[in-house]
Design brief:
single chain; 217 residues; mainly alpha; 3-stranded antiparallel beta sheet; 9 helices
Length: 217
């Protein structure tokens, strides 16, 4: 039975949160659901347990009374073998393609439940290219298999630590890029006299400043 966040697969953690937050469950029913998840059994099997054994396993749920520890930003290994795949970790924004960037921007706004998909943006099988699909494409691979492997084989501590690492790194990188672009627009504005050109430039500058402020929050 799983008895700590250090050994809990992230996918199980998401299911644990769903059970805990289910307002239709009674406290006892929540315990049954949690024991089933952490013990790798069904709820019917838990209900078949002798009462003393049920109480013993319920006591092992005590660690869930505290939230998962605050994540410490930790990068993933350069090469990660999960789901029977050798995955290379791409943690440099400059080495990523636009498809990865677009998916990152979308997934980062979706919260914890999207973190397996978020990490899969940075994990690509050797010889493959993110965003490619189709049986006839030699660079294609099954992105869903990578997401599934992250959820099933990486622990809460690993996923949250890696997510924190990538989010911090990308925030800094994008912040530097926006600062550089902001300076270029300001220099350009000083040379443009035509209002039809300067007005859209000023709007672009305002948008950049708002985006930069969002990265620092």
């Amino acid at each position: 039975m799983i008895t700590s966040y250090d050994t809990m697969p992230f996918g199980i953690y998401l299911k644990v949160l769903d059970v805990i937050e289910d307002k239709d469950r009674s406290p006892l029913d929540v315990q049954v659901g949690l024991i089933a998840l952490l013990d790798g059994t069904t709820e019917d099997e838990v209900l078949d347990l002798p009462v003393p054994e049920f109480h013993k396993r319920a006591a092992q749920l005590a660690f869930l009374e505290a939230p998962a520890p605050d994540p410490k930003p930790v990068p993933l290994p350069r090469v990660l073998n999960i789901g029977g795949m050798d995955l290379r970790t791409i943690d440099d924004p400059a080495a990523m393609n636009t498809s990865q960037f677009v998916d990152y921007q979308t997934l980062v706004q979706q919260g914890r439940s999207a973190w397996p998909a978020l990490l899969a943006v940075f994990l690509v099988p050797y010889g493959k290219t993110y965003g490619h699909s189709g049986d006839d494409d030699p660079k294609a691979y099954d992105i869903e298999a990578v997401r599934k492997a992250v959820a099933e084989e990486l622990t809460v501590v690993q996923v949250e630590g890696a997510a924190a690492f990538f989010l911090n790194r990308w925030r800094r990188q994008l912040g530097r890029s926006l600062t550089s672009l902001n300076r270029r627009v300001r220099r350009l504005l000083r040379t443009v006299k035509d209002p039809s050109l300067s007005t859209p430039l000023r709007k672009q500058l305002k948008d950049l400043e708002e985006l930069g402020a969002g990265l620092t929050r």
